[in-house]
Amino acid sequence: SGMSTLKVDTLQTTGGAGLYPARAWLNYNQVVVGITNSANVSSVTDVAAGQFTVSFTNAFTANTYCAGSVGFKSVGSAYVRDIYMDGDDTQSTSSSQVRSESTNGSNPSDVESNKISWTL
């Protein structure tokens, strides 16, 4: 059977509270440079060590979105990797610049597994 599409402008619980699903999400490996899985992400561009730009398939209506992320500590590594958006980087409705660094002195470093979602 065919696939159905549900189109809505606002999602709410039965009690009327708003629901805010991710508008885009990404699981990205900077070390081997590849998208593991994603939604509403057209591409990822490696900018420098610990820095990459995510391009969205469908642009956001504003660049004031919120990005939530999870850092990854490799097996056997002593340090966690932080993933964040830098206030000095330009965020646009069609792309988001993301940075990562090691917790051992804030050194920019590539991360094996970046898990990020964007909501507006």
What value does the Rg take, in angstroms? 16 Å
Count of DSSP H/I helices:
0
Strand content: over 45%
How does the helix and strand content classify structurally? mainly beta
Contiguous uncertain segments of 5+ residues: none
Proportion of helical residues: under 10%
For the termini, the CA-CA separation is 33 Å
Average the pLDDT over all residues and give the rounded result: 86
Tell me the number of strands.
Answer: 11
Sheet of most strands: 5 strands, antiparallel
- The H-and-E topology, N to C, reads as EEEEEEEEEEE
* Envelope shape: elongated
Structure description:
The chain is an all-beta fold and 120 residues long. It contains no helices and eleven strands. The chain has strands at residues 11-12, 18-19, 24-29, 34-39, 41-48, 51-56, 66-70, 81-84, 95-102, 107-108, 114-119. 21% of the residues are buried.
